[in-house]
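Tokens as discussed.
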């Protein structure tokens, strides 16, 4: 037992080697194509959570103007 903290043993630090190992494991599990998508969704989720905690609400975009009518080709 550590006399300074009162816990059994201090938690070890995570080094560069462990981080690289975790990134390689994630690459093997999810694949190279899904990792950017997962990162994007995590970032969006964290931003939404932060905004909800701070009370900020995103500005709603104004309604889009109606699309120009397209003429359909009639076959004869």
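Sequence:
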């Amino acid at each position: 037992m550590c006399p300074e903290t009162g816990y059994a043993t201090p938690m070890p630090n995570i080094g560069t080697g462990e981080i690289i190992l975790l990134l390689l494991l994630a690459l093997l599990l999810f694949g190279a194509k899904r990792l950017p998508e997962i990162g994007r969704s995590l970032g969006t989720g964290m931003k939404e959570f932060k905004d909800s905690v701070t009370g900020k609400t995103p500005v709603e975009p104004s309604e889009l103007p109606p699309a120009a009518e397209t003429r359909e080709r009639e076959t004869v």
